[in-house]
Amino acid sequence: MRKTAAENTNIRLKAVLDVLAEGVLSGDSQNAGAVLAEALVRVPLNAYEAELLSGGIPRGHKSLTTATSKLVKAGWLVKGRSGWTITEDGQRATVAFPDAASFSAALDAGTPVPVGTPLPVAAPAKPAAAEAAPAEAEKAPSKAAKVVDKAAKLIEDAVAPVAKAVRKKAEADAEAQAPAVENSTETIEQPAAVAVAGDFNTLLGAPENWAPQYDEAQMKLDELDQLWKISAEIPAGYYNFKIALNRSWDENYGAFGAFDGANHELHHSGGQLTIRYNHRTRDITVN
Fold it and tell me: Which among 66, 76, 124, 52 has a CA at the least distance from the CA of 240?
């Protein structure tokens, strides 16, 4: 029977833990992007899930990325500044809930790992979806990796021209007379504070990640172009973040400017990073 997108996402969440657990056993570390790509290899996207959203990310990939917060909530996964780490409880979950059905039920119900469950001593079994089509699974790695890489490239290609245009406009306006700038820029009521809250806040100097209350996470409003901005040197990596207003999560915006939406995803090659937020449109640009 064909599985729903939600069921597939839960199976992929199990694959995420399996991949991380295998990495612990083999001593091979993988970044978040590689782990997600391997999960998509083991449980390939169906036609609906493979549809690209407006940001160039496949629907199923975005659903999986967002759903990994369930693993964090369960205490099975930690998203830190150096990447994703499976906890010992997460490793034991791959033993306690070895099949997709029991894993999904435990995750959705918040069932804790039974006391006394041992750590895995062998690589967890691959999901049934991957076992059912070994030939397809063998061909899938490069295809899935290409999907992830293409999605990241599409985001970069889409963001760069917008960011460049914003910079040019700001530079041109700065050279113009002040009255002309004031007349050409329509001001709107702005929030008291805007923060970039994500899994790289500690890299900005904040005490913890995903915490919009800290000064280090706050953006500054450029009165010239009415954009909130923050710049910092960030190591290369795959990051997630949201825009949170007034130092709390009461009002926050995710991907595509959606209120309380999915995380923004950022593939950064390392070095200077600038994030801009337009409160009028809820648009985010990154370069």
Answer: 66
- Helices 5-26, 32-42: axis angle to 10 degrees equals 120
Other CB atoms within a 10 A radius of the CB of residue 13 amount to 24
Structure tokens at 215: 């000064």
Q: Is residue 216 over pLDDT 80? A: yes
**Confidence (pLDDT) at 188:** 80
User: Is residue 234 within a helix (H) or strand (E), and if so which, with residue range?
Assistant: strand 227-234
**What mean pLDDT, rounded, does the chain reach?**
80
Round to whole Å and give the CA distance between 68 and 235. 22
Amino acid code (one letter) for 235: P
Q: Using an 8 Å Cβ cutoff, are 234 and 268 in contact?
A: yes
Taking a C-beta distance cutoff of 8 angstroms, is the pair 36, 152 a contact? no
Classified as helix, coil or strand, 174 is helix
Q: 225, 221, 222, 216: which is closest to 193 by C-alpha?
A: 221
Q: What are phi and psi of 196, to 5 degrees?
A: -95, 105
User: In the chain, helix, strand, coil percent, each to 5?
Assistant: 45, 20, 35
For 147, residues 6+ apart whose C-beta sits below 8 A from its C-beta are 37, 40, 45, 50, 58, 61
HSE of 50, CA atoms in CB hemisphere, 13 A: 11
Sequence-ordered list of residues with C-beta below 8 angstroms from that of 22, at least 6 positions apart, any chain? 28, 123, 124
CB atoms within 10 A of CB 242: 22
pTM of the model: 0.48
Instruction: Report the alpha-carbon distance of residue 64 to residue 170 in Å, rounded.
Output: 37
Strands 271-278 and 283-286: antiparallel
